[in-house]
């Protein structure tokens, strides 16, 4: 990994590479050290991922038809959305089980306009953020050419092109920064043949929405400096979405990066501030491999 390690107080890579967490080890090898898929260490880590208790539990709880929990309610802690997002995060390879899960998700979450919603038949205001956030795992699990997934991308680009794209009724009709992060995450995996002048304009607009905010980290945006596992809407999530789209060198980016860097401890690690109650991957108020991994992903892009 090239230096921006000089922005760290210590080198956390040996800690991230500990086989105790094969998922973090796998992503560290792939994303930070650029090891190829056929590298023996990568193959060993990926084989170990399938043996993790959480992975086994998720697949045991999957219905033979592919869904989790209530088939018609994928947006629950035990539902398809959570299960597929976790399997993606953990680096579980695509297979027939993940394909069936994605198919069930699309069947019960996709509106006729292409967007994803809590209730398939109702055009909810949360469509853009849920659509953007879930496209990542659909692409990871191999559905790039599925017409339903391509319809979701088309919906996201079109919906985010409107003047009031980020206007959120749940946020006093202010611009929804979480929606901007989620949409950027979705557009980060946009198939090459769907990229266009319009999609580039959308990315630029969303990036500027995040970079131009007058953040109040003592008040309204205080929670943005509490990093959680899995990732949520926080400052590190915003920076991670921005660097993927080439904004690491933007002068507005660097002061925000400094705030993240100031959260590391003397060992170059970041701590976990919040966890999932249903599927806790780490412990609160402890050094977090997952958050440290994301921080280093951002630093690599900056470097």
Shape: globular
SS summary, helix count = 13
String of helices and strands: HHHHHHHHEEHHEHHEEEH
- Measured by DSSP, the beta-strand proportion falls in under 5%
If you compute it from the alpha carbons, what radius of gyration comes out, rounded to the nearest whole angstrom? 19 Å
| Structural class based on helices, strands and sheet pairing | mainly alpha
Q: CA-to-CA gap between the ends?
A: 9 Å
Q: Summarize the biggest pleated sheet.
A: 2 strands, antiparallel
Specify the helix fraction band: 40-55%
Secondary structure tally: strands = 6
Strand line-up across the major sheet: 1-2
Concise synopsis of the structure shown:
Helices cover 48% and strands 4% of the residues.
Structure write-up:
The protein is mostly helical. The chain contains 13 helices and six strands. It has helices at residues 13-16, 22-32, 40-49, 53-60, 80-90, 96-109, 127-140, 147-159, 177-187, 197-211, 235-244, 253-261, 289-302, and strands spanning 167-168, 174-175, 228-229, 270-271, 274-275, 287-288. The strands form three sheets. It has a two-stranded antiparallel ribbon. A two-stranded parallel sheet has the order 3-5. It has a two-stranded antiparallel sheet with strand order 4-6. Helix 9 (177-187) packs parallel to helix 11.
């Amino acid at each position: 990994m090239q230096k921006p390690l000089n922005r760290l107080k210590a080198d956390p890579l040996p800690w991230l590479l500990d086989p105790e967490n094969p998922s973090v080890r796998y992503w560290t090898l792939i994303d930070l050290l650029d090891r190829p898929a056929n590298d023996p260490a990568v193959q060993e880590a990926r084989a170990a991922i399938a043996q993790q208790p959480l992975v086994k539990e998720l697949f045991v709880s999957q219905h033979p038809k592919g869904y989790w929990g209530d088939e018609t309610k994928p947006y629950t802690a035990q539902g398809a959305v959570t299960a597929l997002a976790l399997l993606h995060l953990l680096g579980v390879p695509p297979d027939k089980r993940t394909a069936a899960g994605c198919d069930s998700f699309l069947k019960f979450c996709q509106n006729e306009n292409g967007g994803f919603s809590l209730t398939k038949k109702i055009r909810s205001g949360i469509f853009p953020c849920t659509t953007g956030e879930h496209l990542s795992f659909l692409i990871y699990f191999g559905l790039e050419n599925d017409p339903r997934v391509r319809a979701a991308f088309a919906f996201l680009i079109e919906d985010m092109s409107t003047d009031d794209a980020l206007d959120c009724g749940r946020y006093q009709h202010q611009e929804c920064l979480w929606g901007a992060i989620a949409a950027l995450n979705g557009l980060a995996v946009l198939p090459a043949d769907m990229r266009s002048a319009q999609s580039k304009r959308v990315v630029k607009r969303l990036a500027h929405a995040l970079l131009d905010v007058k953040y109040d980290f003592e008040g309204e945006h205080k929670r943005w400096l509490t990093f959680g596992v899995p990732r949520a809407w926080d400052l590190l999530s915003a920076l991670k979405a921005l660097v993927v789209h080439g904004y690491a060198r933007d002068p507005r980016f660097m002061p925000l990066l400094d705030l993240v860097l100031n959260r590391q401890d003397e060992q170059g690690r970041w701590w976990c501030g919040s966890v999932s109650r249903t599927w806790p991957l780490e412990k609160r108020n402890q050094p977090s491999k997952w958050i440290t991994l994301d921080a280093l992903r951002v630093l690599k892009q900056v470097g």
